[in-house]
Amino acid sequence: MSDEDMKALQKDVRKKKRIATECASEVHDLVEDGLWTDYENLPALAQKTYEACLAWKEAETKLAAAEG
Fold first, then answer.
1. Which of 2, 18, 19, 35 has the smallest C-beta neighbourhood within 10 Å, fewest atoms?
2. 10-38 burial, b if ≥16 CB within 10 A, otherwise e?
3. pLDDT tens, residue by residue, 7-51
4. How many Å apart are CA 30 and CA 44, to the nearest integer?
């Protein structure tokens, strides 16, 4: 695998981790600030966060395989 390919995989992992972190932050904010008024948004937000975490883990697994 070329250096460019490795850098692209690393960049993808960082991007997907950032997205998962942002989703987790949204869950935190909802729970902290608006649980009693916005609780109906929690299932969709939790699903979005779960999917973002799965995408990050998949990208990280691809990177580990390429490195290893």
1. 2
2. eebbeebbebbeebeeeeeebeeeeeeee
3. 999 999 999 999 999 999 999 999 999 999 999 999 999 999 999
4. 12
Please provide the DSSP assignment of 11-43 as one string: HHHHHHHHHHHHHHHHHHHHHHHSHHHHGGGHH
Short-list 60, 44, 48, CA closest to 22: 48
The answer to whether 45 and 30 have CB atoms below 8 angstroms apart is yes
